[in-house]
Each structure stands twice: as structure tokens, then as C-alpha cells.
Amino acid sequence: MHTVVAEVWRGDFLESVHHGTVLATAPDGSDSVRIGDVDAPMYPRSSNKPLQALGMLRAGLELDGPLLALGCASHSGEDIHLTGVREVLASAGLGTEALRCTAALPIGEGALRSYLAGGGQPSPLTMNCSGKHAAMLATCVTNGWDTASYLDPRHPLQVRLRETLEEMAGETVAATGIDGCGAPLFAISLRGLARAFGRLASAPEGSLEHRVVRAMNTYPQYVGGTGRDVTRLMGALPGAVAKDGAEGVYALGLPDGSAVALKIADGSQRSRPVVMVAALRHLGVDVDGDETLTALATAPVLGHGEPVGAVRPTF
Length: 315
Description:
The protein is of the alpha+beta class. It contains twelve helices and eleven strands. Helix 1 packs across helix 8, helix 3 runs parallel beside helix 5 and helix 6 (156-169) crosses helix 7 (190-201). The model has no long low-confidence stretch (mean pLDDT 98). It comes from Streptomyces tsukubensis.
């Protein structure tokens, strides 16, 4: 059912493999790389967030710059992220008690250590999706929609976001579930996800789509955080839009309209950036000419705290 897309080498010994599905599309929409059933429905998880943000802008949300990037984020829980979430909520006359996302600890290693040292407990604010939820609440206030039920799939907000996703992906949502943060989760194919990111990244200047891309690419630290591969990836690719997702999902669009969408079958995150960079090579991106992309092209396998091998792509 799945193809090996990455191998885990410990020295000269093949220790493990990661199966997955990968699609890279050229500017004209043709397939540059197609591995696995890219037309089967899957949950994009947080890779949907830039498309959800576009839906919120279309519904009248007035965010831009770093705060819009935060609305697309799976943030690490650093101070800039928490301050930004409070700012988005305050702009709508709301406090953190309005957040309905799941209580959680920061996912950034440094942010987590600092938070726990200060006696912090799991909270909706420090949950990595709180930026998206704050933007959802602000959109509700703008439209006079109920803020207590904004996570209901039948809520006017969620209906708008589903419609935006379907339009950008060029296909109908195949299933609706509940994401880890409690928000509705809409299933599409990897092909639909790649199509949506290609359209997003190639949208003309002045469009709402370009506004999302510009915010994320200009302020990638708000989308992820210190040391995060999604932050580093966008920093290395001017004009690109990229978003990681749980269960091994990754999507990226380039300004020329080419795109990559992938999912690691076992949900592992360690091979995700490795496979992404391999797909970018097939799109003609000069991976070896950029220090960041070269570093992301493999992932170290450690022995006694030192690199003794690597996670490498198979294509």
C-alpha cells in the first residue's frame, strides 16, 4: 500500500525505513514526483492552516504581518507567540478564556523548559494551535457570530473555511473529523493539498492569498519557532509558503506555482523534512547551494549523543 521514501542508516547498517506518499507538481500542474496513491483522501492536519486563514480573511478578518502568520501557526509557545495570541484576542475584545482549544504545554523545547521552570501548567494559550483559534474568534466577532460554538462544523465560520478549502483544493471534502486542538478537520487528497498550496503561493500581489503567503514567509518564526524546520525552510525559500502537520504531513508552494504535498505513513516527523527537500530537488530547487536546505536534506541518527548515521531519502 505504501512505498519506502526514507531509510534510517546507523553507520553502514540499514536499521529502519519510513513509508509514505509524495506528490511534487510543476508550475503547469503536471507531476514531477508521484509516489503512492496521491488521490486518496487524507487529513492534512495543520497543513490546512494557511487555507483556513485565507477563509478567515475572506470573511473579513483584519490581520496582517506577524499576527496573520501566527493565525497560520503551530507555534512553539515562545514569548512572541503567547504575546501575539493575546494581542489578536484583545483586538476583538476577548481574553484567553474565550479560547476553546485543548489545554497543552508548549511544543518548543526551550519554551517548554522555561514554562515548566516557572510553574506553568497545560493551558489553551500555550497549545500550539492557539494562534489559529484566536484568529477564528476574531473572525466571529467581526461577523457577529457566536464565539462559544465556533468549533461546531455547522458554525458559519467553519462552513466558510470548508468552502475555501474545497475551492483552493479543487475537490470536495471527503470526511470531517476533529483535530487535536478540537477544531473541525477536513479531509482532502495530497493532490488537492498540493494544488491549493501552488495556487496560494502563485497568487498575484495584492490578493488575500498573497497576503497569507507574504505574512508567513516574512515572519516564519511566528509560524513555527526557534529551530523548527518549517521556519528554516521558508527562511531559505523567498516567496514560498510551507506548513507542517501532525502525523507526518507537509505541504509547500513556490511562487512559480509548483508545489509539494507529502505524508509519512507511520506519522513520524523525523523523515518529513528530509522527504520534502528530496522533492524540492526534483522541482529544480538548488538544495546544495543553500546551507539550510542542505542541512535539512538528511537528519542525524545519534549514538552516545553524536551523529553515527542519517535519515536519507530514497528518491
